[in-house]
Amino acid sequence: MNIALISHDNKKPDMVSFILKRLSYFSSNDIQIFATGTTGKYLKNAGLNNVKTVLSGPIGGDAQIAAKIANKEIDCVIFFVDPLDVHPHQVDVNMLLRICNVHDVPLATNSSTAELVFDSLLNKKGSD
Protein backbone atom coordinates (compact mmCIF):
# COMPACT_ATOMS: atom_id res chain seq x y z
CA MET A 1 0.00 0.00 0.00
CA ASN A 2 1.41 3.38 -1.04
CA ILE A 3 -0.01 6.34 0.86
CA ALA A 4 0.64 10.03 0.20
CA LEU A 5 0.68 12.28 3.28
CA ILE A 6 0.51 16.03 2.77
CA SER A 7 -0.44 18.86 5.09
CA HIS A 8 -0.54 22.62 4.95
CA ASP A 9 1.70 24.40 7.46
CA ASN A 10 -0.97 25.01 10.10
CA LYS A 11 -2.10 21.38 9.84
CA LYS A 12 1.30 19.69 10.20
CA PRO A 13 0.86 19.17 13.98
CA ASP A 14 -2.52 17.55 13.26
CA MET A 15 -0.92 15.23 10.71
CA VAL A 16 1.84 14.22 13.14
CA SER A 17 -0.75 13.56 15.84
CA PHE A 18 -2.85 11.49 13.44
CA ILE A 19 0.16 9.38 12.46
CA LEU A 20 1.51 8.95 16.00
CA LYS A 21 -1.82 7.49 17.13
CA ARG A 22 -1.45 4.90 14.35
CA LEU A 23 2.33 4.61 14.20
CA SER A 24 2.42 0.81 14.23
CA TYR A 25 0.21 0.69 11.13
CA PHE A 26 2.03 3.42 9.23
CA SER A 27 5.42 1.92 10.19
CA SER A 28 4.47 -1.47 8.78
CA ASN A 29 6.66 -3.03 6.10
CA ASP A 30 3.51 -3.28 3.95
CA ILE A 31 3.17 0.53 3.84
CA GLN A 32 5.22 3.00 1.82
CA ILE A 33 4.67 6.65 2.66
CA PHE A 34 5.23 9.45 0.15
CA ALA A 35 5.16 12.97 1.54
CA THR A 36 5.81 16.47 0.35
CA GLY A 37 9.06 17.95 1.66
CA THR A 38 8.25 19.67 4.91
CA THR A 39 5.49 17.26 5.89
CA GLY A 40 7.97 14.44 5.33
CA LYS A 41 10.50 16.07 7.64
CA TYR A 42 7.86 16.38 10.38
CA LEU A 43 6.89 12.72 9.95
CA LYS A 44 10.49 11.52 10.02
CA ASN A 45 11.15 13.58 13.18
CA ALA A 46 8.08 11.92 14.73
CA GLY A 47 9.64 8.50 14.18
CA LEU A 48 8.18 7.37 10.86
CA ASN A 49 11.07 5.80 8.95
CA ASN A 50 9.41 4.59 5.74
CA VAL A 51 8.89 8.07 4.26
CA LYS A 52 10.02 9.01 0.78
CA THR A 53 9.89 12.75 0.28
CA VAL A 54 9.28 14.74 -2.86
CA LEU A 55 9.65 18.50 -3.22
CA SER A 56 7.75 20.85 -0.96
CA GLY A 57 4.20 21.41 -2.21
CA PRO A 58 4.61 25.02 -3.37
CA ILE A 59 7.69 24.18 -5.46
CA GLY A 60 6.34 21.12 -7.25
CA GLY A 61 5.69 18.45 -4.63
CA ASP A 62 1.92 18.48 -5.20
CA ALA A 63 2.56 17.91 -8.91
CA GLN A 64 4.98 15.07 -8.16
CA ILE A 65 2.39 13.33 -5.98
CA ALA A 66 -0.25 13.90 -8.68
CA ALA A 67 2.05 12.27 -11.25
CA LYS A 68 2.42 9.24 -8.99
CA ILE A 69 -1.36 9.04 -8.72
CA ALA A 70 -1.74 9.23 -12.50
CA ASN A 71 0.85 6.45 -12.83
CA LYS A 72 -1.09 4.31 -10.33
CA GLU A 73 1.73 4.45 -7.77
CA ILE A 74 -0.43 5.88 -4.94
CA ASP A 75 -3.35 4.02 -3.38
CA CYS A 76 -4.60 6.69 -0.98
CA VAL A 77 -4.01 10.39 -0.21
CA ILE A 78 -4.34 12.04 3.18
CA PHE A 79 -3.99 15.78 2.68
CA PHE A 80 -4.79 17.92 5.71
CA VAL A 81 -5.92 21.14 4.07
CA ASP A 82 -6.03 24.46 5.91
CA PRO A 83 -9.20 26.10 4.60
CA LEU A 84 -8.60 29.30 6.58
CA ASP A 85 -5.31 30.29 5.00
CA VAL A 86 -4.40 31.61 1.56
CA HIS A 87 -2.07 29.33 -0.37
CA PRO A 88 0.01 30.81 -3.20
CA HIS A 89 0.04 27.40 -4.89
CA GLN A 90 -3.74 26.84 -4.69
CA VAL A 91 -3.76 25.95 -8.39
CA ASP A 92 -1.44 23.02 -7.61
CA VAL A 93 -3.62 21.96 -4.68
CA ASN A 94 -6.72 22.00 -6.90
CA MET A 95 -4.87 19.99 -9.53
CA LEU A 96 -3.91 17.34 -6.98
CA LEU A 97 -7.48 17.08 -5.69
CA ARG A 98 -8.75 16.82 -9.27
CA ILE A 99 -6.27 14.06 -10.13
CA CYS A 100 -7.44 12.07 -7.10
CA ASN A 101 -11.00 12.36 -8.39
CA VAL A 102 -10.09 11.57 -12.00
CA HIS A 103 -8.24 8.40 -10.95
CA ASP A 104 -10.71 7.45 -8.20
CA VAL A 105 -8.07 7.50 -5.46
CA PRO A 106 -9.38 7.79 -1.90
CA LEU A 107 -8.70 11.30 -0.58
CA ALA A 108 -9.09 12.62 2.95
CA THR A 109 -8.69 16.37 3.48
CA ASN A 110 -9.39 16.52 7.22
CA SER A 111 -8.85 14.32 10.27
CA SER A 112 -12.44 13.02 10.48
CA THR A 113 -12.36 11.74 6.90
CA ALA A 114 -8.82 10.43 7.39
CA GLU A 115 -10.07 8.34 10.33
CA LEU A 116 -12.77 6.82 8.11
CA VAL A 117 -10.25 6.08 5.36
CA PHE A 118 -7.85 4.62 7.91
CA ASP A 119 -10.56 2.37 9.35
CA SER A 120 -11.35 1.20 5.83
CA LEU A 121 -7.67 0.44 5.18
CA LEU A 122 -7.50 -1.59 8.39
CA ASN A 123 -10.57 -3.57 7.40
CA LYS A 124 -9.14 -4.19 3.93
CA LYS A 125 -5.81 -5.30 5.39
CA GLY A 126 -7.60 -7.62 7.80
CA SER A 127 -9.53 -9.29 4.99
CA ASP A 128 -6.43 -9.96 2.85
Q: How much is the average pLDDT?
A: 93
The chain-level structural class is alpha/beta
**Helix percent band:** 40-55%
CATH H level: which superfamily? Methylglyoxal synthase-like domain
Seen as an oligomer or otherwise, the chain set is single chain
> Might you state the CATH topology name?
Rossmann fold
Q: Determine the number of helices (DSSP H or I, runs of at least 4 residues).
A: 6
Largest sheet: 5 strands, parallel
Q: Give the N-to-C terminal Cα separation.
A: 12 Å
Ranges where pLDDT stays below 50 over 5 or more residues in a row are none
Strand order of the largest sheet: 3-2-1-4-5
What would CATH call the class? Alpha Beta
CATH architecture annotation name: 3-Layer(aba) Sandwich
**How many E strands?**
5
Describe the protein in words.
- This protein has one domain (2-127): Rossmann fold.
- The chain has helices at 12-20, 23-26, 37-45, 61-70, 90-102, 111-127; strands at residues 2-7, 32-35, 51-53, 76-80, 107-108.
- The longest helix is centred in the last third of the chain and has 17 residues, at 111-127.
- The protein is built from 6 helices and 5 strands; from the N terminus they run E-H-H-E-H-E-H-E-H-E-H.
- The model has no long low-confidence stretch (mean pLDDT 93).
- Helix 3 links the parallel strand 2 (32-35) and strand 3.
- The chain starts with a strand and ends with a helix.
- It has 128 residues and is α/β, with parallel strands linked by helices.
- A 5-stranded parallel β-sheet has the order 3-2-1-4-5, sandwiched between helices.
